[in-house]
Amino acid sequence: MELVHGGDWAGYRAEFGRDALDFSANVSPLGLPVGVAAAITAALPTADRYPDPLCRELRAKLAAAEGVPAEQILCGNGAADLIFRLVLALRPRRALLPVPTFAEYAAALDTVGCTITRFMLDEANDFAVTEAFINAVTPEIDLVFLCQPNNPTGQVTPPALVEKMLRRCAACGAVLVVDECFLDFLPARNELTGKAFLHDTPNLIVLKAFTKLYAMAGVRLGYALCSNAALLDKMRAAGQPWAVSGLAQAAGVAALQETAYADAVRTLIETQRPRLAAGLRTLGLRVVDGQANYLLFNAPADFGGKLRRRGAVVRSCANYPGLDATWYRTAVRTEKENAALLKIMQEVLV
Questions:
Q1: What is the per-residue pLDDT across 256-300, written as a single tens digit (0 to 9) for each?
Q2: pLDDT score for 13
Q3: In the predicted structure, residue 1 carries a pLDDT above the cut 80
């Protein structure tokens, strides 16, 4: 079975009998925060209880951290869970996606038979979102996804364009989903977030997750912000009642206290991303300038397979609509790991 996403460490281990230098998943290179690990351990004695289906404590902590009322927060089993819940709640007839973008949007839309309109972003413009994407919203569109920054390009849509898109969606009767799962890696996250528009725009949903910044991919914890209480209620009813385990809720509460850890991750990424990009370009590879903790680059179609056999894994983007087998995405990790990856890449390209 071919998986849609990166991070398939189990598949690599089964094939090669060892672990890879894995750059295919965009999670914090600093590992699970010590405080989060301690909180999960401390919560183990409560594992015999059903978790709080309303995530009351976690939502209260999130409300304080995000500056939004707790009733405007819905927690889920990762952001992917919330994407599927939203689609099941709305059952849109036609949705608009920029291309390329995160694969889970289309996967969720396919489950309800939604017609997907794909707007091709311009490769010559490094796949940036422009006003042309806004103009693609028509009264026939029920739902629009905007990944901020976009996965896999790393491109950030300026807040002015996000606001224009939001107004256009409102005028056309469409819901706008702004996926900010990677935004917290950016120093300018507070200036770029769509949260500022939540108060008076019931057609906006902002998605966030603990997965990436806190290296909690195996814990599964995400949340949605929305001022439309009726829509959040529909999303809550669209999935199982105990989506977030008690251990995950304890982990989320602890993660929100890990401010020094989060700052350290941001500093590392801000330092290492341009260095890794420069290293890739020195090898003669085309790199898209992005602002996230990953880089999209172009290389020969057999490049990923050769890397894999030498013990390193990057994310093939061949299954992203709008890209082909010559496009890859690499995470930005520690200086030592990045140097090791570049060394293997150099050997492959000789």
A1: 999 999 999 999 999 999 999 999 999 999 999 899 999 999 999
A2: 79
A3: no
Token pair of 37 as six digits: 């690990």
Pairing of strands 312-313, 294-298: unpaired
Rounded CA gap, 131 and 88, in Å? 29
Cα distance between residue 244 and residue 34, in whole Å: 21
Least Cα distance to 104 among 321, 325, 322 occurs for: 321
For residues 232 and 72, the answer to whether their CB atoms sit within 8 Å is: yes
Q: Of 301, 328, 331, 332, which is closest to residue 317 (Cα–Cα)?
A: 328
Q: Which residue matches tokens 């030498």?
A: 310
Residue of 87, 95, 205 lying closest to 141 (CA atoms) = 95
Name the nearest CA neighbour of 180 among 283, 295, 72, 102: 102
Per-residue pLDDT at 5 exceeds 60: no
Ordered DSSP codes for 311-326:
TEE-EE-TTSTT--TT
Distance of CA 16 to the CA centre of its chain: 28
Cα–Cα distance measured from residue 239 to residue 119, given in angstroms and rounded to the nearest whole number: 29
